[in-house]
Model the fold of this input.
Amino acid sequence: MLQSYNPQNDNIQIWVGDKLYPRAEARISVFDSSVQGGDAVWEGLRVYREGVFCLERHLKRLMDSAHILMFENIPTREFIRSAIAATLKANAMDTDTHIRLTLTRGEKITSGMDPRLNQLGCCLIVLAEWKPPVYNNASGIRVITSSIRRNGPQFLDSKIHHNNLLNNILAKIQANLAGADAAVMLDQNGFVSELNDTNLFMARKGVLYTPYADACLPGITRELMIEGAKRIGVEVREKNLSLAEFYTADEVFATGTMGELTPVVEIDGRKITNHAQARVLINMEKIFRHRIPEFCEKLPG
Done:
């Protein structure tokens, strides 16, 4: 997943705080809570011709995460929508765009851990880039299992979409060193949780399985896959899944905003072969493409 630099992004406009800045001038304070302690929440959004995909679901998760962390002076949904719309308009972006939407606790009056030092309100960042899905979904990806465990709720609950991603980054480093595309992260009990950057599904005998979202983020694309599969009569089961079950699955694929639906063709050197010709992934891909217009929101401008 080595992403190349796109010269189209040389002169993009980035929203920081309450207005747009040229890329070279877009900055936050060294006193911002995201710098001081990774104290921020974020969402990844994808823009299609039809609009911003699942915007309301993403905004709800952003607001939920900010509420859990007790952010104060959180901007309204209307303000965030207008900031996204202004950013896309300034960059003439209407497709093939990824938005990194970040909300920090804001600037501190002096460095320190105490949130009471944050007295200036939240800081909103809308970073929109020309960026296609990050994986080659035609050929699929090879993954390895990381020794780094995914956070369980007794440590730092992964239901909070926070900026503390060091355990995911450490897992990705292991994948890089192994020459793989991504890393499978297990939970504290040794069951499969997710990849370092996306959720996982597996199919066996026409049944679609996915790990419980106990030690991982219950992703929005994951949610759509579960909803869509049920609509066409595909049985979906959430359960504790071991590596052995993934090694012997008929199909394995990852889901996420950054990569959409990505086949996993190898795990820890084991090839994933379609024993039953179930082709569940093909059906899921059709569902995903079909539902893009349904879930896209056109913003003014």
Q: What stands out?
A: The chain has two domains: 8-130, 141-295. The CA atoms of residues 199 and 219 lie 7 Å apart. Residues 280-295 form the longest helix (16 residues). The longest strand covers residues 40-48.
